[in-house]
Structures are given as C-alpha cells and as structure tokens.
Amino acid sequence: MIKKIKKLLKRKYSLPKVGVKTFNFPRLPVNWNVKIPYFKLEGEPKKMLMVGMSATFLGMALAMTFIVAGTDDTPMFPQSADYYAAVHQYAEMEQLTVGEKRVDQTQTLNLITGNARINSIYLENLDIGKATGLNYSLEMFGVEGNDTNYYKCEKLIIDGLVAPKLEIGNATAYTTIVENNVADGNSFSVTTATVYNHQFGSERGALDIPSVDGGDYDRILLDTTDGNTTCNTITLKDVRSYGAGVILERFQVGTLVINNSVIGDGSGINSASFIIDSSFNSSNTTFNNNVEEPISIA
Q1: CB of 90 closer than 8 Å to CB of 120
Q2: Cα→Cα distances 99→62, 121, 225, 228, 231, Å
Q3: Residue 177 falls within a domain, yes or no?
Q4: How many CB atoms lie within 10 A of CB 284?
C-alpha cells in the first residue's frame, strides 16, 4: 500500500486548460456560434484586493450620484428648501447645489450658513411674503448672547428694498451709509462706537452660492445659528415684500449701505417703519436724504 501511495505522489498532474471554446447551439431559425473568452489576472493578492475595493467604491459613488441626480423631489438651489452651506464646504464642493425639503413644506428659502466661508450672497428681483402667518418675510439671525454666531462680512448692501417694515439691530458696521430712502416714519438710534472694519481675504476655498435672480418665496432666512459665517458681500437688491417686514440682525460688517428703498406699514410717520435701534454700533455714520411720507405697503 505504501508503495502505491509513493507512486501516486511521484506522478505528474496537470489541470485541464481553459481556452476559447466554440459551442454549437441547437438548430434555430438563425445559426450562431458564441465564443466565451477566458481572462487571466496577474498581480500580488493585496494589490489586486485594493484594486477591486477601489472599483467597488467608485461604482457605488457613481450609482449614488445618478440616484441623487435622478430623484425628482431633490431640491436644487434656489428652489424652496433648507441648504446647508457648511456641509457642502466640508465635502470640498465649490458651489451650493442640493437642498433638503422642509418638514413644514412651506415656500421658504433657508440658507443655513453657520461655520461656512462664503464668497457672496446675492438676492435680486424677488417677491416675498404672504398675507398672514409670518413675523418676518426676510430674516437674518443667529443666537442671542453667542459672540460666534454672526455674519462677519466685508459689505452688506440693501438697495431698492420695498417692505412694510425694516428693523436693524444687534449688529455692527465700521461705516454706515443710509441715503435716498422713503419711509412711513424713521427711527435712527445708532450707537457710535469703535468697531472692527471687517474685510474679506482670498476667495480661494470660499463656497460659491449662485445668485438668486427672480422668483417668489413666502420667506427668506439667512441662518447663522450653527456658528460664525464669513463672507465677502451680502446684497439684497430690488426685493419686494408684503404681509411681513424685514429684520436684519447678528452681522458685523465693514460697510453697511441702505439706499433707494421704500418702507411703510401704514401706521403713520409717528410710528416708525424704518428702525435702526441703539443695539446697532457704528464708527462712521452718514444719513442723507431720508424722507418721511405716509406709506402703506400691501
């Protein structure tokens, strides 16, 4: 028995070769032959494993991209939705694109910008507001008592605003220019103080938010509650609201400009519609040609 085993071990064995084989299929209306090729992979096991895993992850990423792109109900900026600027920036995306549907399903454009560094926010030629149910049609806000929750920008420009009310407070501007506005009563109580002249540095690495030009929303929210927001310029140009006013707070800018705006809630010039309260601090202030008239924006 031992001798037989030794003989078996001494024998040379070879596996059958797998090559190109032609299979003849049963007779059908069309005669055909199919050739099945064989493939030979060579390389170190670890390298081959890494290549396979990389290909798998790449395929999954591409699949998710097509799934997101092909989902009809995924909001794309500037559709009404919640948009998280910091999430886009952490993902090293250059532009704000995809949003998240709001739970309340309102027509609100909500820019959640805390902990993000943004080039510019530009809102132009927009119709906002609704008849009832809103405290404000446009609101810039953060967290009271938290010094990191501010919009720290080079410029904030409000040009051609039409609104029942405009309130500004809990903010600073190194230079403030308020001119050529008409309001149903003005109340300007700016506190003169030494404040920072905020300037924006390089645009490198800053998130680009596409300009919002034309459209209508019930509200626009500029939300910095998650943390400090750094930006170059915020511009509100030819924004028209009704039913609820505009409040801008929690910003620290180099220059604030408010011009060519019409503000009034119809309460009369003795009850101011355009308010800059004493919680707003500025080092240099210019007021020029701001007229009071009985105006009602409806």
Answers
A1: no
A2: 19, 16, 18, 21, 20
A3: yes
A4: 13
What does the alpha-carbon distance between residue 6 and residue 10 come to, in Å, rounded to a whole number?
Answer: 6
Confirm if 171 and 80 have CB atoms less than 8 A apart.
Answer: no
What is the domain extent for residue 279? 75-292
pLDDT (tens digit per residue) in 104-147: 778 999 999 999 999 999 999 999 999 999 999 999 998 766 76
CA distance 98 to 127: 22
CA distances (Å), 164 to each of 247, 255, 265, in order? 11, 24, 4
| Nearest of 221, 277, 285, 223 to residue 255 by alpha carbon | 285
pTM above 0.90, yes or no: no
Cα distance between residue 41 and residue 107, in whole Å: 56
Those residues whose C-beta lies under 8 Å from the C-beta of residue 244, and which sit 6 or more positions away, are: 129, 130, 134, 135, 136, 137, 164, 219
User: Within a domain: residue 122?
Assistant: yes
The residues that bridge with 219 in the sheet, in sequence order, are 108
What is the b/e burial string over 128-152, where b = at least 16 CB atoms within 10 angstroms of the residue's CB? Answer: bbbeeebebbbbbbbeeeeeebbbb
Interval 172-185: pLDDT, tens = 999 999 999 999 99
- Strands (DSSP E) along 63-116, which ranges? 81-84, 108-112
Per the domain annotation, does 123 fall within a domain?
yes
d(CA 96, CA 116) in angstroms, rounded, equals 11
